[in-house]
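TL;DR need structure tokens for one chain.
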Amino acid sequence: MSANSTSTKNSPGNDEGKTVASQAAPPAVHGASEETATQRKAKLESIVWPLVRDAIEKRIAEAQRHTQMQRAAQMEKAPGCIVVEAALLLEAGWADLCDEVVYQYSIHFTYTT
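>> reply
TL;DR here they are.
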């Protein structure tokens, strides 16, 4: 079937014999065929990760301002704590956003009786 073609399909919600336009997505949507999954993943990460980092930085700054206002109002010197849950924190190189990093590794067990 060509990129722009019509076909007759019998599927749920489609009366028998109705013509349905079928259009394949252009290669630009899925990436060129020479491009590997690893290359596409790297390209996507180069777009998304900076945006996610910016969002995390903004939330941290917001939480710090809020904590400072609370301390000023209560004249408190207690340390604050901000928790950042990011599955790719280390892979993305965002550990510099944190004073400490706590990593939890879990193994899933399935018990049969």
